[in-house]
Automatic annotation (TrEMBL):
Protein's name in the database: Uncharacterized protein
Native source species: Gordonia crocea
Biased composition range(s): Low complexity: 34-55
Region (Disordered): 34-93
Keyword check for Signal: yes
Residues in the signal sequence: 1-27
Alphabetized UniProt keyword annotations: Signal
């Protein structure tokens, strides 16, 4: 059976629309605008790679950020670093919101003793009140870069904010 004239026209129109759309997509994707972006002065910005290129399959490849212009993801800007507390560093201990640095400020306390007290008191720092832990008086600190401190006699250790 032969298709009716109406069916043939509908098929031809559909095919033309599909081909037209495919042509527009190919035309739009086929342009290669490698013009460098301008800075605020109107001069082209210096780039080490073109704005885009294509791989072997013809897929557009856009370069990522320039590593020489992007800082290390773990670096802390100088204006955001906190000063180091002088004393004997005993390593990290847990605090209410993450790791804190344990530092012996004065006395003859050993790091292993400070760590035992810190393990018990660290989560209680968030209470904001003085606590007695294993004979040590521990509480919040108003000193810069020190979240809390524990003292017993002449011995003192602190919970320093890490950099």
């Amino acid at each position: 059976m032969l298709a009716s004239t109406k069916t043939l026209i509908t098929r031809a129109t559909g095919t033309a629309v599909v081909l037209g759309a495919a042509g527009l997509v190919l035309f739009g994707c086929g342009t290669d605008d490698t013009t460098a972006p301008s800075d605020t002065s109107g001069s082209p910005a210096a780039t080490s790679a073109p704005a885009s290129s294509t791989d072997k399959s013809g897929v557009a490849v856009v370069p990522g950020p320039n590593p020489s212009k992007v800082g290390s993801p773990t670096s802390i800007p100088a204006d955001r670093q906190v000063p180091d507390v002088p004393g004997t560093k005993c390593g990290a201990t847990r605090g209410p919101d993450g790791a804190l640095e344990l530092v012996i400020l004065k006395g003859k306390i050993r790091c292993d003793t400070a760590k035992k007290v810190a393990d018990e008191y660290g989560p209680m720092i968030a209470s904001g009140r003085k606590q007695t832990v294993q004979g040590w008086t521990c509480g919040p600190s108003a000193s810069e870069n020190i979240l809390a401190a524990c003292a017993k006699g002449e011995d003192t250790f602190v919970f320093q904010l890490p950099n």
